[in-house]
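Exercise 4. Each item below gives a protein and its sequence. For each, produce the structure-token representation.

Item: RING-type domain-containing protein (viral metagenome).
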Amino acid sequence: MESLTNAINILNISVNANEECMICKDELQCGQCYTLPECNHSYHTHCLISWFRNGDSRCPYCGNKGVNNKNNDTLRNVRGKYFTTVYEAQMSADIKKYVYLKKNDTNKKCLETRKQFEKIKVLEENYKIEAQKLRDLQQSLKETPAIYSEAKKNIMCYRSKKWKITRQIRLEQLKIVNTSYIIPLIIPLSVTL
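Answer:
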């Protein structure tokens, strides 16, 4: 059988039956291994931990984002000024919880971040005021007759103010998330299927 394999191997390619870790390019037999359940690619556990700690949530070989991927492909490019993702909202909430702990009352960075959260709070109050003004205007237009062009102009003015405030809130939240460095600790567990 081996002679048949050698006869078929025209290019003299040595077949290596040992699998290698695609991160460190070392053989998988030399350390503890973990197989990703989504795509069945195997890596050294320590290589995979360092890969995920560096912030990449995809499989190093095939790019599979796994079962916990919550991104909607149709909304992937819509973010920043008008839209925050679930990840950014969660990060903002986690940062806020950390910053307002009693033990961080003297930390300079935490105090600066608190000021940014206070700015967001003021913007949210302004948003509520503008939303109430818009509701009042719409209610008054229902009760009293008005010129259509003026009414439309007033409504668009209040709506644009609301959108500007919403955009400012999103930008402030993104500033906080982008300047605060929280690296999640990912501990892989072996899964037996």
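Check: Residues 108-143 form the longest helix (36 residues).
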